[in-house]
Amino acid sequence: MSKLLTVFGATGNQGGSVIKSVLANPQLSSEYKIRAVTRDPSKPSGKALADKGVEVVKADLKDKESVKKAVEGSSAVFGVTNYWELFSKDAEVEQGKNIADACKENGVSLLIWSSIPHATKMTNGKLPHLPHFDSKAEIGEYIREQNIPATFFHAGCFMSNISSQSIQKSDEGSILYWNLNPDTKMPLFDAADDTGKFVAGILLHQPELLGKDIYGASGWYTPTEIVNTIQEVSGQKTTYQQVSDETFQSFLPEAIGEELKETFMLMRDYAYYGPGGDKILAESLKYTDGKPSTFKEYVQRSGPWQTGKLDSLFLNSKVSSQIRYAVLLLQLVEPIPGLFLSAHVPHVFSSCPISLDAIK
What we know:
Blueprint: E1 3-7, H1 13-24, H2 26-31, E2 32-38, H3 44-51, E3 55-58, H4 64-71, E4 76-79, H5 83-86, H6 89-105, E5 110-115, H7 119-122, H8 131-145, E6 150-155, E7 157-158, E8 168-170, E9 173-178, E10 186-189, H9 191-204, H10 206-209, E11 213-216, E12 219-221, H11 223-234, E13 238-242, H12 245-250, H13 254-270, H14 277-284, H15 295-301, H16 311-314, H17 321-333, H18 345-349
Parallel strand pairs: 1-2, 1-4, 2-3, 4-5, 5-6, 6-11, 7-10, 9-13
Antiparallel strand pairs: 8-9, 10-12
Helix pairs in contact: 1-9, 4-6, 6-8, 11-15, 13-17
């Protein structure tokens, strides 16, 4: 009899990738039936999953009982939350605990938790304005405290959100401005394609990886390597220019400037994952179900590099360069599904002199 794998965030980058990889693996697809959790199964994305034989159920992470019901009968669960949806650390922690509690009450054999490091603790309080890091890490701590059998997947930065639209045009070509040293290493991966490769690997090596941390990146890439790759693939001259932390923050809306500045400082000064990240990532890559994409492979297959998902935003002359840049940085660190229609947008852009109608 098949076991049940329940996937939260099933229509997003990470959850969708998990479902795709499990369905594509002969062993896992015969071992597990998949239940996809979404707030609205009637949407096209939910119907598309149902057409593939996936059970699609409705649940709201804020509603503990609906989460518990969604997990019923599960052997394994993939859990992920989205800080930017409510723009609240407390709200995200509550949602993550709802998933954890549901797993414990239902006797789930494995919870695969999508996490990232606790930035405040890792930096000894030197970077205290990263709630979207700390919230996921605190959920992970809660999972361990509750003795829930789990493996912790730590996602790197998403390749899909480095596009030519985050690069400033100049008379002499294109320039990427960050507050990173040119040789700062960034852990990148193609979340929509490769999250599932890591998670499928965890499922295939479940006893061995129980309680372990798995880092999710295909490798480490520097700003210099990123622009050189873009130049090689696109044929357009592209260079990198480091700016100061203060200048970098000045590019951004006040509501999120400090948080995004510290996010990039975490990569620059603490190697994103902290001490030992190189070793843990190298070990993690031994367990993937298929080789994750390199950045060059991603750029080569992603079509014209000038074309991105936010074209309508960036072609809108009413949208300030400050908003454009902030959106791209947010998307790089933790993509925001339905960004311009979600409830947190007024909180993020309340200080910007522009009507939200201009960017919907």
